[in-house]
Structure formats: structure tokens, C-alpha cells
Amino acid sequence: MAKKPAANPRPTEAKRAPRTEASATDQITESITGAIVERRLMPGTRLVEQQIADVFSVSRTIVRQALNQLSRDRLVTLEPARGAFVAMPSIDEARQVFQVRRLVEGGMVRQLAAQVSDAQIAELRMHLKEERQAVVRSDVPGRTRLLADFHVVLARLLGNEVLAEMIADLLSRSQLIALMYQSGHSAEHSQAEHVDIVEALARRDGRAASRLMEQHITSVERNLQLDPRTPDLAAVLRRRA
């Protein structure tokens, strides 16, 4: 009697396969990046290698690889003899990040308007609905992630993963900047601006979509405290009567 062919491994068995070193590194990188985007990790926070290794049940070597990757992405600063810290972007870096975003994302939506499909507009409107629900229920981590993801979704609709990765990196850095310089740009305002951008795309109006995107990014930047006033030293130090 002929032998039956071996059955395919069950899904549960596949899940038990050991993680590769690369996948473990990616998991740590994505977790820290996600915590930054959702504003759960503040600028200047020390990232202790052993604590991270314990959380993910990996060696400190793998943690170090992840921190090196985050350092190359400018999300983490590595200091000799002190360790790793969540980056603290300078004012000049903040301005440069927003300048690049205006240039890249303005062109991105102009191109998207020329080729976007009705199905893609429906996908964007579903994303806007999720944003709105998160804003209404005051889900801070959820709305922060969704508002950031909106920009990455636009890039992916163009079918350009390189662009999507670039936008994701810029957005992670933007979130650090917003934490550093106390953004006054409300989630409600951002969500309303996203709605306007999608409506311009639905009309296939590339010029309007580009203008609205640039205005949106400029509005976010203007609500940052990038020009702190120099305090009056005498007034600060003078004893109160």
C-alpha cells in the first residue's frame, strides 16, 4: 500500500519555530519605534540593554543590534560609557525634517491624485473613520498612531514601499520633535485636515491635494515651540515678596 504524503505542519507548529536573530532584532526595533510614535517613550529616556533583553527573551547582542539600527534612523542616541537614549532632536533638525516632509509629501499626493482609484478613496475614507472614532473616544495612543499612519497609507497606495519606509521614518522623528517642543496642534485639527486632503484626492485635484498637504505639515510645525523666548534672568531669580 502506498504511503500517504506527509501532512503539512499545523499552523500552531509553525508558530513554535524559533525566531531568527534578524526577526528578533526587527521585533525590538518595531516595538521601540511604535512606542515613540504612540508617545509612550519620551525623548531622553534611557534604554537599558538588559531590561530590553529580559522583555524580549533575547541576548544583549541582539538588543545592541536593534539599538544600532535605531541610531542609524536617528531615533536613538548612543553615548559612550553611558548607553542608549531616545533621541532629543535639535531645533535645526526639527525644521529640516518638516521641510523634507513638505517637499516629499506634497509631491506624493499630487502624483496620487493622478492615479488614485475609487477603491483606494474608499480605503482612505475608512481610515479617516477610524481616526475620527479614536479622536472622539480620546484614545491617545490609537489616534496618534492612526494620524501618523495616514501619511504612510498614502505612500503605499502609490505602490512605492521605499517611499512608505521613508515617510514612516520621517513621521517617527516628527513624533519625537512634537514631544520635545510641545506641539499645540490638536488631534481634531489634524483629523479635519486629513479629511480635506482626501476630498481633494477624490476630486483628482492634485494641485489642491498638494497645497493642503503642505499647509497641514506647516500647521503642525508652526504649533511647535521652536522659538522659545529667552527668559528675563532678573525676573526669574528675583525673590517673590
What's this model, at a glance?
This protein is mostly helical and 241 residues long.
Account of the 3D structure:
The protein has 241 residues and is mainly alpha-helical. It folds into two domains: 21-86, Arc Repressor Mutant, subunit A (Orthogonal Bundle); 91-222, Up-down Bundle (Four Helix Bundle (Hemerythrin (Met), subunit A)). Helix content is 67%, strand content 4%. The protein has a three-stranded antiparallel sheet with strand order 1-3-2. The longest helix has 23 residues, at 91-113. The termini are far apart. 29% of the residues are buried. The model is unreliable at 1-17 (pLDDT under 50).
Low-pLDDT residue spans:
1-17
Mean pLDDT score, rounded?
86
Estimate percent helicity: 55-70%
Number of strands: 3
In the CATH scheme, the class of the largest domain would be: Mainly Alpha
